[in-house]
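Annex B. Sample input.
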Amino acid sequence: MEIINKFIEMETDKGINIYNITPQLEAVLASTSIQNGQLLVFSRHTTTALAINEYEERLLVDIKVYLQKLAPESDNYLHNDLNLRKNIPPDEPMNAHSHLMAMTLSTSEVVPIVDGKLALGTYQSILLFELDGPRKRTVFCQISGQ
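Annex B, continued. Sample output.
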């Protein structure tokens, strides 16, 4: 069995934004000789998340509203009281809500590879959720199989 590690890097926008990274992942897979196996996608950040879902404009708005209700930016969070924290950088954002949203979602997804293609359903896309930003983000991809 072969294992290939790759990275996708991207610049994100401020606030909650949802990116369809399926095309980038398909390109990563196409650059390998793997025909059957699996793709592990892993977010390397504590204020981003991954999910497999439909990438449809109105649904994306619904998802953003849902996440904002779960962890409103305006709530009081201990993480945001910078006076209580040690060794924080001078540009530290008030982003406790972003961490909480990320914990509600997931940091990784695994997708089967069949005949050299991702075995996603008709309406499924692999989505990267930026919950803070703007930042340079890195997504780790591990492709295993033969």
